[in-house]
Amino acid sequence: MNLQDIPVRVEERSLYEVREKIYPRAVHGWFAALRWTAVWATQLVFYGGAWLTWNDRQAVLFDIVHRKFYLFGLVFWPQDVVYLTVLLILAALSLFLFTAVAGRIWCGYACPQTVYTELFMWIERVIEGDRNARIRLDKLPAGKRLPRKVAKHAVWIAVALWTGFTFVGYVTPIRELWAEVLALSTGPWETFWIAFYAFATYGNAGWMREQVCKYMCPYARFQSAMFDKDTLIITYDAKRGEPRGKGKGVGDCVDCGICVQVCPTGIDIRHGLQYECIGCAACVDGCEQVMDKLARPRGLIRYSTTHALEGRATRIVRPRVLVYSAILLAIGAAMLASLYLRVPLKLDVIRDRAAIAREVEGGLIENVYRLQVMNTAEQARAFELSVSGLPGLQLWGDPTIGVGAATSRVVPVKLRLPADAAKPGSHRIEFHLRALGVEGIEVDEHSVFIVQ
Amino acid sequence: MSEFTSEFWSLYIAILTVVSIVACAWFLRSQSIRKQANVETTGHTWDEDLAEYNNPLPRWWSWLFYITIAFGLGYLVLYPGLGSWKGTLGWSQVGQLKEETQLAEKQFGPLYDRFAAMEVEQLAKNPEALAIGQKLFLNSCAQCHASDGGGSRGFPNLTDRDWLYGGDVKTIQTSIANGRNGVMPAFGEVLGEAKIKDVAHYVLSLSGGTADSIRVAKGQETFATICAACHGAEGKGNLLMGAPNLTDKIWLHGGGEARIIETVTNGRTSQMPAHKELLSEAKIRLVAAYVLSLSAR
What we know:
The structure holds 2 protein chains of 2 kinds. Chain A contains 15 helices and 16 strands. Chain A is an alpha+beta fold. Chain A has helices at residues 30-49, 81-102, 105-110, 112-128, 131-139, 142-168, 174-182, 188-208, 210-216, 218-222, 238-241, 258-261, 282-293, 306-309, 319-341; strands at residues 53-54, 57-58, 60-63, 68-71, 74-76, 233-236, 301-304, 345-351, 358-360, 364-375, 381-388, 394-396, 400-403, 407-418, 425-435, 442-451. Chain B starts with 6 loop residues before the first helix and ends with a helix. In chain B, the strands form 2 sheets. A two-stranded antiparallel ribbon of chain B has the order 1-2. A two-stranded antiparallel ribbon of chain B has the order 3-4. In chain B, 56% of the residues lie in helices and 7% in strands. In chain B, helix 7 (169-178) crosses helix 11 and helix 8 packs antiparallel against helix 10 (257-266). Chain B has helices at residues 7-32, 59-78, 93-116, 120-123, 127-140, 142-145, 169-178, 188-206, 213-231, 257-266, 281-296, and strands at 41-46, 50-53, 180-184, 268-272. The interface between A and B is medium-sized, with 17 and 23 residues.
């Protein structure tokens, strides 16, 4: 039996549909455990990461007010925005690669929407019970279902607020923020963002759930472009399962409906690959429990590929995988190398525009520059300045510049040149700044010297 | 609002805006009516058989539009927008600027308080005060006086000990706060080319430059009758009028015969803008301290 032969109900429906509430049934199994591992891993990092300390400061802090971005030992300044760009490119390429190879594993295991929905569904299950209990509860009169509903929403809101608080804790030092929260003295923007992020968490994980994936998520829509017949998808083995039912002469599928009941997006995987499927493998876990009870082999619903289902070999190595991997590796290596070679010192040279060139005593021509010296290291340093590019060019004044830890300093600098040393016009020169007492910390920056 | 020369335009805009919003709301309402099953197509056909159902907007979407309409109406009541209507909140850009300036003063004021008790001369030796003074100088003064305070042609050098109006603390503060207007009148028509050349040679001789001795003698007479009124009989300048001292080698508008002749013929107008509206009293003290420190080196 081919995929095309699976009985599919064709019905005319209005595109204007009212959402039908989905009551996903709890599921246990290998993939559920994998998802819970991902929930723990991502949330330990998220909720815990904000509390880590490094060099007597918060280890991970995006201090927007002071425009410094701390990531353990690294301090990024706004000038380092290229790293953010590269990081986003890497994230996009990883998404492409993993989707091409393994389908929607991001959606199924690591996406915040999935992770928080999993958390919220767990809370719901603890308070309201599993699928059947919840369906029964919703049929009770309002007064009777109220206590459990109130309890559920209270816990949801508490988790959501803590999430919002943690999120803001990456922007405002979290320990100070906690003190402010306790004193109810958070600033207007802090309050807004805690509330906003809490609302987003509560709304998306509590109420919107699968609708986010079905209607809002752009990634869900364009990843079909990255799918091919060798991409890992959740499949129903129709050859083995059909015709479904109980009794003699039927396939392995007993039509118990568990795969539909556990589905967080409310689809029937037996209709084949659908855009709603987020690849969470809950139906795989559900079906395997049933198969185990019936003492039939597992894998009626399983991770597979279209090619494998058609009885052909799955090719993991294919041009798009190679291209994605190659670009990913190249950019990743370049980023690591650039981070490793990064010098914690930046220099901007701004030539004074008003005074083009002045004559000073002794027949010398003077140009004035404003140097912005940025010491991005977390300790104070002294630097030595020198210039080159024109014979006889000298630096006028103290060549030693002291700059405090992770601060910048503006230093006016005068350069003098004998009047006959260069022709009138603009000459390219080079400033060199070198840290005193530390090897390898130096930057060069070019500018021009103008002779009138 | 002065832009509206007559009430008509204010009314015109107000009515146009309100009518547009009401029309949008009406149109939205007409498009949101839920249709029964058997939806009709729009009647348009593309590529032979592609037709489009004429379904209403999704409800959440039309609600977003309703929210924007409510927001728009609320905004127009609270803020200026409907013609010359000022809004019930009384918000204005100038008001917001004042508010934020006050906030900044309140926030950063204490930073300057600790310097208030110190004399400017003391501040000129205080590294913290000088660091702030330098930042203020780079922001407000360096455009003309250069980042190092060395000035350029037409803009005085602040790093030497020569002052046009005087280098004591009070005078520097006055110069910054009230600004200065330096005027050298044009004598081209009064004196004529020859006499101006004579005067130029005399002026050159004052600072020990090379000059024609006959012209110097002739120029001295003209200088005594005309130039001495401001620059003094000895050419040492006058701090009260900002007339430069001509006996040193410091030239505001450039030395050398050609430049001096140009200055005398056409005159010069220099302006130092007043900064009291831009910088607070406390800031001016710090800038003055920084300027003092420049020439003390």
